[in-house]
Design a protein that fits this description.
Elements (H helix, E strand, L loop, with lengths): L2 H40 L12 H25 L4 H23 L10 H29 L6
Length: 151
């Protein structure tokens, strides 16, 4: 088998692994975020679903979503078949677009959807969180691989 034929036969597998890495990162962020939301609602730290929350509570939600964004991006980078940072940043870009769509959908829907700064903060922080998660993976990969990065 020639090198080009070998590369072509691996392309669909690499593409599927790339998609799986991105999905795994998004599922992680989704489960952690909604799980934490649910726990805080059930423990009455947050008011019941659909009721307005204070800016302070939205600041709490922003804080853990930032951490979960880094974790999800790390997971995306960790399971990426190649170029982990590019995968993490692509996930961050998709996250920013999804956050923008959420901001547009809820912009004038009332206090139950939170203050306007909240969805804007999710848009603005998506790429920095993605970079941080990717960077942590790069540093970890360098430590374990003696400075050799996967390409």
């Amino acid at each position: 088998m020639t090198i080009s034929a070998l590369a072509t036969s691996r392309a669909p597998h690499r593409y599927a692994r790339s998609v799986a890495a991105l999905l795994l990162g998004f599922i992680t962020v989704f489960v952690l975020s909604l799980g934490t939301d649910q726990v805080l609602h059930m423990s009455k730290v947050y008011p019941p679903w659909g009721q307005p929350m204070s800016d302070t509570l939205f600041l709490v939600a922003t804080a853990y979503r930032l951490v979960y964004g880094v974790v999800g991006s790390y997971i995306t980078a960790r399971f990426a078949p190649h170029k982990p940072m590019k995968h993490a940043l692509l996930g961050g870009l998709i996250g920013a677009v999804l956050s923008a769509a959420g901001a547009i959908a809820t912009w004038n829907r009332g206090p139950a959807f939170g203050p306007r700064w909240y969805p804007v903060s999710l848009i603005v922080t998506a790429l920095p969180c993605a970079w941080a998660g990717g960077k942590i993976r790069e540093i970890q990969g360098e430590a374990f691989n003696g400075g050799i990065e996967r390409t």
